[in-house]
Every structure is written in C-alpha cells, then in structure tokens.
Amino acid sequence: MDYSSLRTAAEIITAFHKCQNAGEQIDLFEALATSDDPPVEAFERILREVILEPLIVLTIQAFGKIKDADIREILKQSDHLLTILSEQAQSGETDSIRLSAAKTVVNLGFDFIAISRYFREDPKKIADRITRDKLKEKGLFYAKYNEVRDLKSKLDRQLEQIKSINYDVYDSVIVNSKFKYIPSGNIVDNDEYDLIINDYVQSQNILNDDVQFLRDELSRLQGEVTKFYKDYKENQLAAIDKKVARGKANLKKANLAKRIYCYFSVILSYLIILLLLFKIEESVRGLFVLVYSLFILSLVTLNIIDIKKHRKKYSTKNFLFDILLLYLCSGSILPHIAIKVADRKIESVQKNIEEAENQKADELYRLNDEEQKILSLLSI
Hints:
rod-shaped, 380 residues
C-alpha cells in the first residue's frame, strides 16, 4: 500500500486506526520511515501529543528506521529529539516505550557527550536490561500458556469421556458449560512485534484468570452433576422400586392365601373323617382310628422335620403357625398339600423380591460409581 501521501500527524493516526492488525500497523510506520521523504515533523508531533502506547512505540521506532543519511544526521544533532527520547527511555510508561526509545537512541548514533547530558545510564544497557526482562517474562508467559493449553486439552478429553459414560449428563449439564477458549498464542517471533502487541505480564495474568475460571466452572459443574444424579438415580431405580413393592404386596397375599387354604383343608379333612367313621363298623372303628392316628403322627413328624430343615426361610410367626396347623390336621393329607402349594408360591415371591432388591443394589452401585467417575473427570 502507498503511504507516501500521509504527511500530517492526523493522517498518520487515521491510517493507523484503519489497520486491521499489529502487522499492518508495523508496515505503515516502516513504509513512512523508509520513504524518500519521511514525515519527521508529524512523528515529532505524535510524540508530543499522543499517549496511546502502540502509536508512541511505532513512532519512536520509526526515527531509528529512517534511511536517508542527511535526515539521520539532522536527527542526531537534535537536542529536542534527544530530550524526548531520553525521557521516554528512562521514564516511559511501559517497557515497550522505554525499550524502543533506548534502541532508537543507539540506532541513530547520538554523540556520547550529548547522551551523557541526558542519560544516567547507557541507553544500550537500558535496552539490554529491558530485553532480558522481556525475555524472562516471555518465557514465563509461554510456560503458563503451555500449562493452560495442556490443561484445556486434558479437559477436552475428559469431557469426551463423560460424554461416552453418560450422554444424558453431558447433554443436560456439560454441553452448556461456559469454558473460555485459551488465547491462540500465535505470537510472531519478532522482538518489535512482541513489544507492540504483547504485554507478557498482563497476558500471563489473563491466563491465570483463565485457569481460575476453569476451576470455578468445574466446581460449579460438579455441583450440577451431583444434583442431576440425585433425580437421575430416583428415576432409574423407580421401576425396580415398583417391582419390589409389587413383590411385597404379593407376599402378603400369598401368606394370607396360605392360611385360608389350610383352614379350609382342615375343615374339609374333619368332614371326610366323620363321614368315614359313620360308614365303618364299630368292630373295626377302633383299629381304623389307631392306624389313621399313626399315619397322621408320622405325617406331622415328617412335616416338622421339613419345616425345621427350611427354618431360615420362615419367620417365627409362620413357623409356629405351620407347626400348630399340622397338629390340628388330624384329618387327612389335604392340609399337607395346601401348605406345600402355598409355600412354593411364597418361596417364588420371596425369590422375586430378593432378585429385585439385588438388582436395585447393583444398579445403585453402578450409578454411584458412574457419578464418582464423572466428578473425578471434572477436575484439572
């Protein structure tokens, strides 16, 4: 682009404002300084009237880049320019301004006697010291930048893991997080460019803020995940809870049915015995009663043994009920059959309840483990 038409401070400042990036700003002042007729007066006015750091830095650097030998000689003899540069080199607002001014004094080659009247320290030493400090700041910045970049990369991988573990959590909580993007860090390896666009201390502070933001956001998300799982567990276990409740209701019904069946069979057995006794002749009736009593006694004994064998399946109440019922059952095998049928039903229901409760315990363990994995992934 042709900048030769820019002659006044206002025109240069306007052109600077229109630049899209720092690179274009550097090109602007480079072109002005190396032109056949550099706008020296406009540069001096900018230094007197402008306080915007990039403009001051680029203008100071422009003096040192002027190639016209005659103009450079005039500048070397200018006490006014040396006064401005010495003030900026020793008392400038920023490192960038101080370094640019010190380097320009060295580049223009001012007489050492003149320099000694304005500088308490050799300008070259000032420039070297600031450069060392800037390099140190740059190193610290890049160390922090790499640390933050690695943290962000690690976090991105962990968020993908959460997505694979439980998409509902990712979709409901994680996807709406407010993570900041890490600065691109595309810093051109050029001292002048660095000094214009980068304040490494400030940039490092921004990165520290980014890290703290990430930690705060992760802490917030951990709380959100915990709240999510509280409801999520209830919803996931609701069907199993219904199954357990249904099983317990069926168990109550089965126990009630057992009593009804047994009482009914006892009554029926007595009726059958009475009918048989009326039909049998008196001469053999006593023998029949004896044989039948021995049969019932053996049946009761076998059932008691069976009940004791399976004692752990019975509550105390049911155990006593079965023993009492067997002693009352002096009629026939009907009560025995009723108890067996009812017990099979109860055993089946109890097994279903036990399986459902085990299923609930396993599912709750899985969900708790899943929650802890996700919470651990929400950390850096």
